[in-house]
Write a structure and sequence with these properties.
alpha/beta; Rossmann fold; Helicase, Ruva Protein, domain 3; 4 domains; six-stranded mixed sheet; 18 helices; 9% strand
Length: 491
């Protein structure tokens, strides 16, 4: 990259001198000689041109330091065994794996797994990113691909090792489908060279190389990159389950002083969908909040506040005027009441404190991770979405723009019901269905649930009013308080 920048500056300087009328012939000759000398130094290895970094063999990052990814760790360890026991697998007639692709959302631990692989396998470990191979100059990317594979072999021999790992983060930049960059053939040339280098890896080489790629967009990769013999395995590094979240929280609070009241399981239940990076941030923010309160220990209230902060951001300094506060309290009370009625113990906390773009919100807890839903469960979700606007309508006689996102979510869930064959249409091809028909069924589903929500709201109007009054007074109440009010009114 430095060579390209220097070349551009020198060329611009020559053009400027030529424009002024100077004879630049001697300078051109001198520049050519300088370039030849530079290339000779580069060839001898006296000029550093690597666009990657070598991870030190003293790296102490272990697989045990990564929580919530047991399957991914097992898959990766098995692949690393092919490097560690190369002689044994050769005798068994097993072809070593050439590449492993780590896929999953951002923040789930793909890079951490690669770091742990370096320590586990005691292999030479080179790390880079896909963007390092892409340049506007023809041939530069392909040269860098050749260089990293060559360096991996040379460094392994220099360290008297027979194995090396090349980790490429954001590999979708390097491995995007050929032809997708019609105006920039350099991308395709770079990928072609990468494919050739991976094909050149074989068990008979004195240095076994494993390529580990990481991406959150596997759909963008070229099919030739994913075929067996290149990236032989795809390891899904997904957001952690409940047990995984609990394990990650324990890891990130191990070096922090927690109060005896802290229940990490409760926090894990309230962080459904959080990645490992989010959970690390929760632990860090909780420690900051404890320091802000001059508390020697992190308390449960700090962890809960940290969850809110990670989801929606810091509290806003401006306090809503009484009229707005009243409407927000009614809206959030409606969500919380219906959520508890259709799914008991689902509400963790309700607040009317403004955060980010949200004037208030209801945080729900989930006992277990759920990926399969019945029609009734989906309809109950729609009820909760509609509850805020209906509560406003019952109490104040009209709705507000605050329900905009709620309605979008309700429509999305209704379409899920249709796509899953759970609506009155039965099993259908959604692509062949006229949009006006889909819209009509969505309206019917939402209308049915509106009627149910209105009836539930009217039957429990006393509960709703008490929740509203508490929210306006305290700004934040827990799910336990709401459940206590419901039980008292029902008795």
């Amino acid at each position: 990259m430095k060579l390209e920048i220097i070349s551009g500056i020198v060329l611009g300087f020559f053009v400027f001198l030529f424009y002024l009328g100077y004879d630049i012939t001697p300078l051109i000759i001198l520049g050519i000689l300088g370039l030849i000398f530079y290339l000779m130094l580069q060839k001898k290895g006296l000029v550093k041109t690597n666009n990657f970094q070598e991870v030190s063999s003293t790296n102490k990052f272990h697989f045990e330091s990564i929580g919530g990814q047991d399957i991914a760790k097992q898959e990766l360890k098995e692949a690393l065994e092919f490097l560690i026991k190369s002689e044994e697998i050769s005798l068994r007639g097993i072809r070593p794996l050439k590449g492993i692709l780590l896929t999953g959302p951002p923040g789930t631990g793909k890079t951490l797994l690669a770091k742990a692989a370096a320590n586990y396998s005691d292999a030479v470990f080179l790390s880079t990113s896909g963007s390092e191979f892409i340049e506007m100059y023809a041939g530069v990317g392909a040269q860098r691909v050749r260089k990293i594979f060559q360096s991996a072999r040379e460094k392994a021999r220099k360290n008297n090792k027979n194995r090396a790992i090349i980790f490429i983060d954001e590999i979708d930049v390097l491995g995007a489908q050929r032809g997708s960059h019609a105006s920039h053939m350099e991308y395709d040339q770079t990928l072609n060279q990468f494919l050739v280098e991976m094909d050149g890896l074989n068990s008979n080489s004195d240095v076994n190389i494993l390529v580990i790629g990481a991406t959150n967009r596997p759909d963008l990769l070229d099919p030739a990159l994913l075929r067996p013999g290149r990236f032989d395995r795809q390891v899904k590094v997904d957001v952690p389950t409940l047990d995984g979240r609990l394990e990650i929280l324990k890891l990130h609070t191990k070096n922090k002083k927690l109060a005896g009241e802290v229940d990490l399981l409760e926090i894990a239940k309230e962080t459904y969908g959080f990645s490992g990076a989010h959970l690390e941030n929760v632990a860090n923010e909780a420690a900051i909040l404890a320091m802000r309160d001059k508390s020697p220990e992190i308390k449960q209230v700090h962890l809960k506040e940290a969850v809110d902060k990670v989801i929606l951001g810091e509290k806003l300094g401006d306090k809503a005027n009484p009229k707005v506060l009243n409407r927000v309290a009614i809206h959030e009370a409606g969500h919380a009441l219906i959520s508890e009625l259709v799914k008991p113990n689902s509400v963790s906390q309700v607040t009317v404190t403004s955060r980010g773009n949200a004037l208030g919100y209801v945080r729900q807890s989930q006992e277990e991770d759920q990926k399969l839903y019945t029609e009734q469960e989906l309809r109950n979700q729609i009820k909760v979405c509609l509850a805020g606007a209906i509560a406003e309508e019952i109490h104040l006689g009209d709705k507000s723009t605050g329900a905009g996102n709620d309605f979008k979510q309700a429509v999305k869930i209704a379409k899920t019901i249709i796509n899953s064959g759970l609506s009155s249409l039965g099993v259908i091809s959604i692509e062949d269905l006229p949009p006006i028909k889909v819209n009509q069924v969505v309206k019917d589903i939402i209308k049915d649930e509106e009627i149910v929500v209105k009836n539930l709201m009217i039957d429990n109007i006393a509960v709703l009013k008490e929740i509203v009054n508490l929210l306006k007074e305290k700004e934040k109440i827990s799910g336990e308080v709401i459940r206590k009010i419901i039980n008292e009114k029902a008795a």
